Amino acid sequence: MKAAFMHELYADIILPVAVRGRFTYAVPAKLASVAAVGVRAMVQFGSKRLYSGIIAGLHDDKPELEKIREIVDISDPVPVVDKTQLSFWRWLADYYMCTEGEIMNAAVPAALFPEGSTLIPPVQRYKPREETFIELTNPFSEKDLNSLLDGLGKAPAQAQVLNTLLSLTAYEEGSDPAAVPKSLLLKESDSTPGAISALEKKGIIRQLSLSVGRLKSYESKAESLRRLSISQDTAFISVKKHFETKDTVLLHGVTSSGKTEIYIHLIEEQMKKGKQVLYMLPEIALTTQIILRLQKHFGSVTGVYHSRFNEQEKVEIWRRVAEKDPSRGYRLILGVRSSIFLPFTDLGLVIVDEEHDGSYKQQDPAPRYHARDSAIVLAGLHGSKTLLGSASPSIESYSNAVAGKYGLVKLTQRYGMINLPHIILANSREAYRKKLMVSHFTPELLNAIDGALGRNEQVMLFRNRRGFSPYIQCSECGWIPVCANCAVNLTYHKNPGRMVCHYCGYTSPIPTRCGNCGSTGLSTRGFGTEKIEDEIKIVFPGARVGRMDQDTTRGKNAFARLIKAFEEHQLDILIGTQMISKGLDFENLTVVGILDADSMLNFPDFRAHERSFQLMEQVSGRAGRRKKQGRVIIQTADPSNRIIRLVLNHDYEGLYKMQAADRQAFGYPPFLRMIKISLKHKDRSLLNTLADKLGDELRSYFGNRMLGPEYPVVSQIQTYYIKTIIIKAGKEKPLSKAKEKIREAITGLEKEKGSGGIRIAVDVDPF
Q1: Alpha-carbon gap, residue 336 to 334, rounded angstroms
Q2: What per-residue confidence (pLDDT) applies to 119?
């Protein structure tokens, strides 16, 4: 009977591997009592490898396999994920055509999953942080304490330590001894470890090691909510009214209209109900300003989650979110796209701020999910609502709002009745022709910067390209240094004096001679943020200049330091890429310069015009957010461009009508859905052969709804050649049927002779 029982219970387990499906293991009798859905289980996968997986289901259906392995161990009977999360993972894997193992890798902190082999025991990767504390050995009476202090008359350092301990713990006779960190006690008593050791030998105090969190806590008296303006209050009431009949509402509010204050009032309502709130932002840079604002209202129950935390810190955040006790857990989470994976227990509201932003889309590796769309599904699984906010919504979201799928609320006035910034178009082509340009700056921009600095105001300059120069070119033969691994030019970085590939990270020294003709006539072409920083310092030598891009914000707190410096007016001019465009709020910023609008508009992408409008509108919105009207100078070689004219008038409605008409005519989202298939191989001819085979198979089903296979703009990355196929799915070929056909075709191709080295990635809704 015992042998039969051992194989009556089976577990379907998700493993952190990119293999489709769940893996079934037998649950041994000794583990049957602790096996549960969501619990971590150690299993053997392959000949020697041990993995920690998650039990996704338990049943008594014996699988039709010759050999069924048993679960090796369940070290912790407490589930790490719940059934709602598992349902969410399954939806993500199905919709975005990836595996649940890839979802698990992205979702759960790796430190929660020890790995090993059958030869080496698994090592726990998460270790609680411990700190030494000091406490009294007994609840001494006042008489006892006086006697002890008298006895320390000839040891003033020890007496000082004891007095400081009593002071820090606010010790009262009869109360239980409280512990204080040893480091704090040493600092406050201005003493040495020797004094503590001496008191310990006398039996007066003792040292103990306690587990402490790695996360900073915010302890302060909560500020009361600000009163909403009339327009904000109208929008607030309208959002709540829409939530009565709609699960998702789009708040379309112009820049500096006070959307964040409306969010805070909605969060307050959810907190009073005991619910959790997820507040999503596209960039880590934004969390610095907004976290301080939210902590002032909601205190220590506010948590932050993003990729800059280390694995140990992520585990502690994970546990704080999963904590059901409101006094100990996080109730408000401020996070970037990966925060949708956190273990919410009672989610009441999801806010997706700057919902149009491309940073919400995960590109590589899988899962290639869109956090905004996934957040709406997550909210639905929790029975909660989603609020999308933007000054320049995505065409998809606005289309859903116009169609009545989402509620639509508009906020058309800036807070405090401040006017929208005045936009000036500076014709850079004419300025170059008339030799009026100073470096890369038009006279209009230089005059605006000069005026702002003279009034002790601040300036922000936007250039959506980092580095010093996009490339170096030989003036004799036109040779350009390219990456050894990718089909892209190397970017010149003056500091640290290297040529860098922005795709694979390859670096090489700056060439002194042409690699083709040997000429020394090499010169830089174009300009990036590093070059702007260099040259603005020459034009305005007295200005304090800072730069915010991927190169200057690699450190964990680099964003915060730069933003704080600009906020406290330690910098006069801030130069940056698109990360400066998003939601930042600076009181003294009055002039914004957009240095090369044309490079964004001419990008080969059906979303180029939408994204250019959004970027320019968002960057413009940083100017004049308080008492003074801001000024925005857009440098362009084509002032008559229709998108630039729309930005000039802050005309989002015009953009939407134009884009909707174009996309309907040419078959692009939101009227058709898109799936991109990328094929990669180190052998170019083999890639061509396999891509053509897959293309022929798919074309027989999709016809002219399939584009390619074609080489993309960047046709080689990290020694892999790339070809892409685009599928457009409409009513006649629904998305679910399209995915089914794509899966079949890819499975068939993977069985072809010579397909061993092919890498295939599928991207659904490749925004």
Answers
A1: 7
A2: 65
Tokens 């112009």 found at: 254
User: Which CATH number do you get for residue 44?
Assistant: 3.40.1440.60
Backbone angles phi, psi at 57, to 5 degrees: -165, 150
The C-alpha atoms of residue 727 and residue 701 are separated, in whole angstroms, by 11
C-beta separation of 331 from 362 below 8 A: no
Q: How far apart are CA 490 and CA 511, in angstroms?
A: 11
Tell whether omega for the bond before 365 is within 30 degrees of 0, i.e. cis: yes
The confidence score (pLDDT) of residue 6 equals 46
Q: What is the rounded CA–CA span in Å between residue 539 and residue 28?
A: 75
Q: 333 is written with which tokens? A: 């989470």
- Rounded CA-CA distance 728/235 in Å is 37
Are the CB atoms for 264 and 294 separated by under 8 Å? yes
Count of CB atoms within 10 A of residue 317's CB?
A: 23
Q: At what angle do helices 182-189 and 156-168 cross, to 10 degrees?
A: 120
Q: At 729, is the secondary structure helix, strand, or coil?
A: strand
| Number of domains making up the chain | 6
Tell me which of 662, 690, 715 is where a domain ends. 662
- Inter-residue contact 721 to 685 (CB < 8 Å): no
Task: Determine, yes or no, domain membership for 225.
Answer: no
For residue 185, is it left (φ>0), alpha (ψ between -120 and 50) or beta?
A: alpha
Q: Are residues 568 and 449 in the same domain?
A: yes
**Cα separations in angstroms, 342 against 247, 304, 338, 346:** 21, 11, 8, 12
* Residues present in the chain in total: 767
Residues 361 and 336 in one domain: yes
Residue with tokens 């030019």: 489
Are 490 and 481 a contacting pair, CB within 8 Å? yes
CA 648 to chain centre: 30
Last residue within a domain, chosen from 662, 695, 722: 662
Looking at the structure, do residues 548 and 655 belong to the same domain, yes or no? yes
- Contact in structure between 691 and 723 (CB atoms under 8 Å): yes
pLDDT in tens, 695-724: 999 999 999 899 989 999 889 998 999 999
CA distance readout (Å), 631 to 152, 274, 420, 542, 646: 70, 44, 9, 22, 16
Beta strand spans in 620-672 (E): 631-636
Query: What is residue 4's predicted lDDT score, i.e. its pLDDT?
Result: 42
What's the token pair of residue 542? 């007295």
Residue type, 513: R
What distances in angstroms separate CA 623 from CA 58, 549, 614, one per listed residue?
Answer: 57, 19, 15
Cβ neighbour number for residue 623 with a 10 Å cutoff: 29
Amino acid at 633: I
Domain that holds residue 180: 129-212
> What kind and span of H or E run contains 644?
helix 642-648
741: in domain:
yes
Tell me, yes or no, whether 533 lies in a domain.
no
The parts of the chain modelled with pLDDT lower than 50 are 1-6
- The CB density around residue 48, as the number of other CB atoms within 10 Å, is 11
- Residues 279, 360, single domain; the answer is yes
Q: Are 395 and 652 spatial neighbours (Cβ–Cβ below 8 Å)? A: no
How confident is the model at residue 625, as a pLDDT? 59
Provide the CB-side half-sphere exposure for 374 (13 A, CA): 32
Phi-psi label, residue 601: left if phi above 0, alpha if psi -120 to 50, beta otherwise = alpha
Beta partners for residue 175, in sequence order: none
